[in-house]
Amino acid sequence: MTTTTTATKQFITSEQLLEHWQGHRNLTRRTIEMFPEKDLFEFSIGGMRPFAKLAVELIGIGGPALKGINEKTTEAYHEDAFVPTNKAELLKKWDEETEVINHYFNMISEERFQETFNLFGQYEFPVYQNILYFIDNEIHHRGQGFVYLRALGIEPPFFWERF
């Protein structure tokens, strides 16, 4: 009997994944900037949360989750840990968390991306799937923000312009 082994090749590096995620974060930041301040914190459609609350959720996930992955801790998610009162404060925290994400992401070894991690003590998936969840969640919430902007008569940024 002959055994055939197929070598798998990596199609994306961790650096490329981080660049992809940060491209989405850049686009979400530009989306935040486009909102009139009052509407950023108050406007909603169909009972959905205002975009500021959606952005705060994203702030509360990425950096803290990557820190937990690196320190192997499973602290619960805290949505009310940061409560901004204006757009400038929200954007400042967004930028700070971008640096936190860069710091902790770059500490994850290639092997650790395949390890299972219990995110926030709730979701048990490989590290790479958790990171893809962060990106997917951001795209989902930014889509809500795009709908809000259009309802306000504001053209959102092009989704493919992530610089």
Automatic annotation (TrEMBL):
Statement: the UniProt record of this protein carries the keyword Transmembrane helix: no
Molecular function per GO: metal ion binding
Pfam families linked to this entry: DinB
Alphabetized UniProt keyword annotations: Metal-binding
The UniProt record lists the keyword Ubl conjugation: no
Binding annotation for a divalent metal cation: H141
InterPro entries: DinB, DinB/YfiT-like
Superkingdom of origin: Bacteria
Family per similarity comment: Belongs to the DinB family.
Name listed for the protein in its UniProt record: Damage-inducible protein DinB
Organism: Chryseobacterium soli
